[in-house]
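Dock zinc ion; give full complex structure.
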Amino acid sequence: MITKLDSMLLPRKKFIYHYKNVRWARGRHETYLCFVVKRRVGPDTLTFDFGHLRNRSGCHVELLFLRYLGALCPGLWGYGAAGEKRLSYSVTWFCSWSPCVNCSIQLCQFLNNTPNLRLRIFVSRLYFCDLEDSLEREGLRMLTKAGVRISVMSYKDYFYCWQKFVDCKKSNFKAWEELHQNSVRLTRKLNRILQAWDLEDLRDALKLLGF
DNA sequence: ATTTTCAAT
Ligand SMILES: [Zn+2]
């Protein structure tokens, strides 16, 4: 089990402030990304590194992560001149916001060129996804088509992040009011964006049809 | 609250 120095971990208050899945997350002006990098060797995965990043000077945190990725994943681009023998990695990230359309496009391009990298995304809140025809919604669909699984964080994900990325001083994660309701609401919204049938939607549809 | 959203000073 890899562990980090306390200084490398997120302070508790900071984690709660930025990851709280409230409907109106005003005035934060920052986005955090907690990541786990695993090496894939056949059917097995080995945790290779983990940590967190924050957006810097006009650069969204997702693109900052892509810049770091070469250093995080030795051999991702292969060893020899022809770039053969690429090593396989899986990355899971937990971001306080879902990606904007620009980041989604760049991520899709990156993943297209890097089939030996698998990406799994959890988000706390949906970024600019209110309008039916928002580009951000389209970006999330593009990512899904590129093979990225995107989910809204639920209690178990906050619980995991708390013990993995936060300087929690052995304290247990304590859910805020509305964590569950907000997570369910956002999950339904994401499901609708990704055009998946949601159980509640199905119930509504059946009721409408008189069943 | 008809609230905001990876700042701009
Ligand atoms: Zn972005």
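Observed: Strands of chain A lie at 32-41, 44-54, 88-97, 117-125, 149-152.
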